[in-house]
Specification:
This protein is of the alpha+beta class. Helix 2 packs across helix 4, helix 2 runs parallel beside helix 6 and helix 5 crosses helix 7. The mean pLDDT is 81.
């Protein structure tokens, strides 16, 4: 059985009991099939599938692509911290342990896949908790597909809800500075325009030891790569492009 203390911790923080049970099981295994999780947790297999589906929609789990048998991996525990009631001191104190438990279970680089809007925005909100992020994006495209979520995020930037101290926004576009970029600049953000780049609906974020690649379209998906080496190389490449671009 998964660690009962961790299961209770997550349940007390707002994650439903069965979801907490399955999530801790995933953390302990690194990756697992529904059958394996069912045996470890004591849940019936149909129930396990339903719980895994719910976790995946929220961004707390994802499937490994191209596996003959559906295999699941846990989402970063920090994503829970961006969405659950994490003002509770005990959760914040336990977060490093949850992350250590996750890291012990697999080899880097770790790749997570998300294919629901709710899961993608959960990761994006988690990204917004970091003060130093490099972004290549088009906020006009983002606003077109997700106007409500984009406006909510912008307002939180303006209210200083997020600690976007050293964020660098490299905007891919051919026209001038939009109202969204003006609002980011007014809130103290660093914005550069690179007219020659065409990301074809792809957004890229580099932060901490992670890279998120998001396809923004009618059927969105996101891939998150966790690797110090890969992130360091991509950050150096971003810095080169940033220095060659012009401030908005």
């Amino acid at each position: 059985m998964p660690d009962s203390g961790l299961v209770k911790l997550l349940s007390d923080s707002g994650l439903p009991g069965k979801e907490a049970l399955v999530y801790v099981s995933l953390l302990e295994n690194g990756s697992a099939t529904a059958t394996k999780i069912s045996k470890q947790t004591g849940l019936k297999r149909p129930t396990t599938y339903l719980v895994l589906e719910s976790l995946s929609k929220k961004g707390y789990a994802s499937t490994i692509p191209d596996k003959k048998v559906s295999t699941y991996v846990p989402g970063d525990p920090a994503i829970l911290g961006a969405k659950l009631n994490t003002t509770a001191k005990y959760f914040l104190e336990m977060l490093p342990y949850l992350q250590t438990l996750q890291n012990k279970s697999g080899n880097r680089p770790k790749i997570s896949y998300y294919d629901s809007e709710e899961a993608i925005w959960s990761v994006f909100r988690e990204t917004s908790q970091y003060p130093d992020v490099r972004l290549i994006t088009s906020y006009e495209r983002l606003s077109k597909h997700y106007p409500r979520e984009t406006e909510e995020w912008l307002k939180n930037c303006e209210r200083k809800v997020y600690r976007l101290k050293n964020w660098r926004h490299l905007i891919s576009k051919t026209s001038g500075v939009s109202n969204i970029e003006k609002r980011l600049i007014a809130s103290g953000q660093n914005v550069h325009i690179l007219p020659s780049i065409d990301m074809h609906d792809i957004d890229l974020a580099i932060y901490q030891d992670k890279i998120s690649i998001t396809f923004i379209a009618d059927r969105p998906f996101m891939v998150v790569i966790e690797s110090n080496e890969v992130t360091h190389s991509m950050a150096n490449l971003f810095d080169f492009v940033w220095n060659a671009s012009k401030s908005a």
